[in-house]
């Protein structure tokens, strides 16, 4: 039932959910694999690719650069004809939407090419800082500047190849800055050394980047994810690469088991998972759930009656699951606290303020801190109409509350197309 064309009224679960779920591929792995295979020598085959707004935006952008990805929609397979590190088109306007992986990864790689490139995005993308990455690229010899406001997209690049050398970067806003530099580094003329200043946000995503680079034949050296050396020039080699299901997306379904006292198994994600967000199930264990993992599956059983414990958690390593945990915490005993995620203010929305506002509509008191949020569930939450701020994770995380509360509405629910177009179809199967 919908209250307007883009709103969805959720149906509560009639009891504990009991489902086995197959999820689409990881957005993070898909966009890394697309870009790296586009720079490779030869044709790569990517299996299990995510087909969503962010990944289609990457494919379109690569097409603007002369690298045309062939997609088998039914089999979720991409055939990528690599350019051997030589981008075919030397003058292009590239639209990056609100996809940080597209804007930040392509900004770095285009600096290693030869030509003139202009990268723009949505209004929200133009509000997301990129100055630390631009400064680091300049230290490596890039000619890159701002077309509007200092420190923010849109960007203009007059590329004459990336010289290489040494750079230091602040990456407390986004690990994507470091990932972009790393993926471009093999295309440089000389070795690249990157040193992290301060705290590195979302460390597992950088480890993921290095792993994907290795799968396509590029060697690197790292010291505790604080220093990186990428010998250059190197050539990416074409490969057949399998993309595992999205662990961030899995968090919503694991939360469904927790909040209803039911069982959810996700196929394809287990002990071999390369994504840091699989660590969400460790948080659920601390809240009273039972978790079982095999090499390629994970099952979560929620506590009887969905009675969850509160917890104090540092989520710097997996900030994308913060909205999932915050909504789940509204049903927990005790005052949960989420720490060390100040970079959430620079996501698709200011997620700290957005969470506080929307939980407040449900009668849940919160306290927003400089680095996180406390949830203070003094009274049982009530159903509300939730604004999503054009942020896919707001829409999906608040759906968990709809399993317990009759009358929950998600406004502008089509924003989930950014990373998970079929989310509400799969979610309906839970009820």
What would you note in describing this structure?
This protein is an alpha/beta fold. It folds into 2 domains: 8-24 and 244-428, UDP-n-acetylglucosamine1-carboxyvinyl-transferase, Chain, CATH 3.65.10.10; 27-242, UDP-n-acetylglucosamine1-carboxyvinyl-transferase, Chain (Alpha-beta prism). Helices cover 29% and strands 23% of the residues. It has 12 helices and 25 strands. It has a 4-stranded mixed sheet with strand order 2-15-17-16, with helices on one face. Strand 22 (365-368) and strand 23 form a beta hairpin. Helix 1 (27-39) packs parallel to helix 3, helix 1 (27-39) runs parallel beside helix 6 and helix 7 runs parallel beside helix 11 (392-402). It is globular, with a radius of gyration of 21 Å. The mean pLDDT is 96.
Q: Which stretches are low in confidence, meaning pLDDT under 50 for 5 or more residues running?
A: none
CATH topology of the largest domain, which one? UDP-n-acetylglucosamine1-carboxyvinyl-transferase, Chain
The CATH class of the largest domain: Alpha Beta
Distance between the termini: 13 Å
Q: What CATH architecture of the largest domain do you see? A: Alpha-beta prism
Radius of gyration: 21 Å
**Overall pLDDT level:** 96
> Widest sheet: strand order?
2-15-17-16
Shape: globular
Beta content comes to: 15-25%
CATH superfamily of the largest domain: Enolpyruvate transferase domain
Main sheet makeup? 4 strands, mixed
Helix proportion of residues, in percent? 25-40%
What is the number of helical segments per DSSP (H or I, 4+ residues)? 12
Number of domains: 2
Structural class: alpha/beta
SS elements, strand count: 25
